[in-house]
Amino acid sequence: MQRITLDAEAERVSEELMRRGIAAGSRVHVVAEVIEASELPMAALAEVGGAFAFLADEPDLYSDSDLIERNQ
Questions:
Q1: Do 16 and 6 touch, CB atoms closer than 8 A?
Q2: Nearest Cα residue to 5 out of 25, 24, 33
Q3: Is residue 25 part of a domain?
Q4: How far apart are CA 19 and CA 24, in angstroms?
Q5: Which residues have C-beta within 8 Å of that of residue 28, sequence separation ≥ 6?
Q6: What is the distance between the alpha carbons of residues 1 and 4, in angstroms, rounded to a whole number?
Q7: pLDDT (tens digit, 9 = 90+) per residue, 7-21?
Q8: Number of domains the chain is built from
Q9: Which residues constitute the domain of residue 34?
Q10: pTM for this structure?
Q11: Triad 26, 55, 44: Cα angle to 5°
């Protein structure tokens, strides 16, 4: 079983899953945690504002293997 965590707008969840290599026809189990805009951490605010958009153009710069999972 592969486990990933997304921080994405609801309308972009499918797009983000496919970007991470999960085929459109794959069955997934999804748990959604809705975050109010006033509760967004600083990194999420930067992402929503487009500060990390350049990473999509540089796929070899960072990958999911660079993520550090904490407090799980």
A1: yes
A2: 33
A3: yes
A4: 10
A5: 17, 22
A6: 10
A7: 888 899 999 899 888
A8: 1
A9: 10-62
A10: 0.47
A11: 80
